[in-house]
Amino acid sequence: MSNEATTAQAAQATEDTAGTEPPPRGLGVSLPAADTRAKTEGTFPYAADLWAEGLLWAAVLRSPHPHARIASIDTTHAREMPGVHAVVTHEDVPGTPVYERGRSDRPVFASDVVRHHGEAIAAVAADHPDTARMAAAAVIVEYEVLDPVIDPEQAFEAEPLHPDGNLIRHIPLRHGDPDAAGDLVVEGLYRIGRQDPAPIGAEAGLAVPRPDGGVELYLASTDPHGDRDAAAAAFGLEPDRVKIVVTGVPGATADREDQSFQLPLGLLALKTGCPVKLTATREESFLGHVHRHPTLLRYRHHADAEGKLVKVEAQILLDAGAYANTSSDALAAAVAFACGPYVVPNAFIEGWAVRTNNPPSGHVRGEGALQVCAAYEAQMDKLAKKLGLDPADLRMRNVMATGDILPTGQTVTCPAPVAELLEAVRDHPLPPLPKDTPEDEWLLPGGPEGAGEPGAVRRGVGYGLGMVHMLGGEGADEVSTATVKVQDGVATVLCAAVETGQGFTTLARQIVQEVLGVDEVRVAPVDTDQPAAGAGCRGRHTWVSGGAVERAAKMVRTQLLAPLAHKFGMSTELLQITDGRITSYDGVLSTPVAEALEGKELWATAQCRPHPTEPLDEAGQGDAYVGMSFCAIRAVVDVDIEIGSVRVVELAVAQDVGRVLNPAQLAARIEAGVTQGVGAALTENLRTPRGLVRHPDLTGYALPTALDAPDIEIVKLVEERDVVAPFGAKAVSAVPVVTSPAAIAAAVRAATGRPVNRLPIRPQAAVVTSGRDRLVRSAD
């Protein structure tokens, strides 16, 4: 069923039940988010809105150089300024922060060496934000400026930028026969730019000292327990003396908050004994938080005369920037999915992640997978052209299915309906050509007032097939804990899974409604006094935290039904909860859930832990991932071949989702992911000449606006349930981000005949100098 049909049914159901009882509830309906009203009315508690008695304001001094030796730091003038309460540097940090998987390579403050532009040097707490900023500027730092290493290829031969060296990880994947060769060979060199996550809303935080010598941090954290552990290690405290309270998260497509101000904030609160607040400017956000890994990729594809893939060879080089962050995980994903959702009997991939003096790279939605998708799909277009085949036909001859083997040796056990997805977008009707409408209604590349002319516009159609892994990988312990309590007919869910815009709180309400038949379900605020639920990325909360909520709710269900079953001499398995009533198989028992719950307080705690995975071995082999999801996108673009402007006319999307749990929410997630991919394809590139972040603001960094968003047609959602996932559902937001840039690039290639080997696509890459054509579809 198409997503439009699913959404329309949900909308009709909502309309039909408006003003009646009971309201829509449970899984499979478009239950609205509980925080919608607070966000629209401006009462949602974002970190930037918080206040405390005796509040001080913080500011961070950041390095103006990408690489320099620190000769001295003089804080005398800053400390003597009226209104300044504290200045902290590396000398005031009692411990070393420890990040995910035990990494400790990134200090709170630079001490001897600055490794990237914007690295934190010192922090100030003062009684006014302007005073704090002036005091930070008054800290005198003497630098010995060094030549930065900005080319990742130079990092192999350069002097070590870090005590751990410049090489973070090397993965040599070996699969099949190294001597295998095809009848045809195509090669390509590809570059992927640095995309910023550009989080909505200010990155902000409030630190409040505790009487026991600890500290509470109020943050829009997406991984509160991970942030707590890093902070406790940096502060020299036991984890139970540091508490993270999660404030409202205004959306997240990456690691939401920047450690370069979280940790200084806590240190200042501990030093002054006062609450301290910091609200980062957009410039500080660009300088401090992580970005998508810029990547250099070299590919060689071998195929037989019929277009079947024989061997793929690739070299993948990720620019990690100054510190490791999640580069090891990103490289593993890039290497594992370097051949895409295609059957490749022989694969030989070399992958490296290296340190440079560029801004730090880290987790951004679809990390690793997006970069290789753009490259392997360009290779498939080259093969199709060389063989004289339709690009969709060539892909269809090679698509992966359930039971096939990844180049890592892992068997694809989850549903992999790649052929069905490709067929859906290929067969979807193409949008009408602008030449079929009045000229004054044409939408030309460059916008309504753009410089383009109809005679210079050519249309292209291109395809992209993408895949991502769900949850963490390579042995990561993906456990989550949830508690469900029911009292006075109201259910409460306690789970440290952070709502980042992915809809977890709505899903948790739907799960409890489905299992227990109660109408009112509340999700408690998140803090680190609750058991850990892990980071809010890679769809893990839908799977792991949703699974924990379901198990806890089922345990409460058993507590509720057991007395009734005993009274009527039957097992609880013979009772069911439907439409708010408890009924027996024979119809003897039929009672409202509210009546059965009256006067009772029931609760249960449960965990969900998927089956274990393993790290990739020295040959890049291993069952590294719990599950995968797939997407097919057909892009239609108009290109002005004289000025290189590109307008994405339509993106047709087909995706395997396992099971639709909330139709409207699912459609919104796919559309948002596709639009983020449009930015990666056409506009978003954080420029860092000689390691310096250029134009760190939203005027210099071009995000796609509503005018840039194309028509997004969700033409098919394949609901083939993954039997090992709770509810059978799959993550939905990352794979369209991964796939849409590759599809757009393919469409631009089709329109122009140019190779398009770089993302984002620069105007000069889409310019054709051979003359002007009529506006026609590239296949005409």
Automatic annotation (TrEMBL):
Matching entries from InterPro entries are given as: Ald_Oxase/Xan_DH_a/b, Ald_Oxase/Xan_DH_a/b_sf, Ald_Oxase/xanthine_DH-like, AldOxase/xan_DH_MoCoBD1, AldOxase/xan_DH_MoCoBD2, AldOxase/xan_DH_Mopterin-bd_sf
Q: Which domain of life is it from?
A: Bacteria
Entries under Gene3D superfamilies matching the protein: Aldehyde oxidase/xanthine dehydrogenase, a/b hammerhead, Aldehyde oxidase/xanthine dehydrogenase, molybdopterin binding domain
**Where are the annotated segments for Disordered?**
1-31
Q: In which residue ranges is the amino acid composition biased (Low complexity)?
A: 1-20
Q: Where is the Aldehyde oxidase/xanthine dehydrogenase a/b hammerhead domain?
A: 41-147
By its UniProt entry, which PANTHER family does this protein fall under? XANTHINE DEHYDROGENASE, XANTHINE DEHYDROGENASE SUBUNIT D-RELATED
**Full protein name:** Xanthine dehydrogenase family protein molybdopterin-binding subunit
Organism, by scientific name, is Streptomyces chlorus
**Which taxonomic lineage does the organism of this UniProt entry have?**
Bacteria, Bacillati, Actinomycetota, Actinomycetes, Kitasatosporales
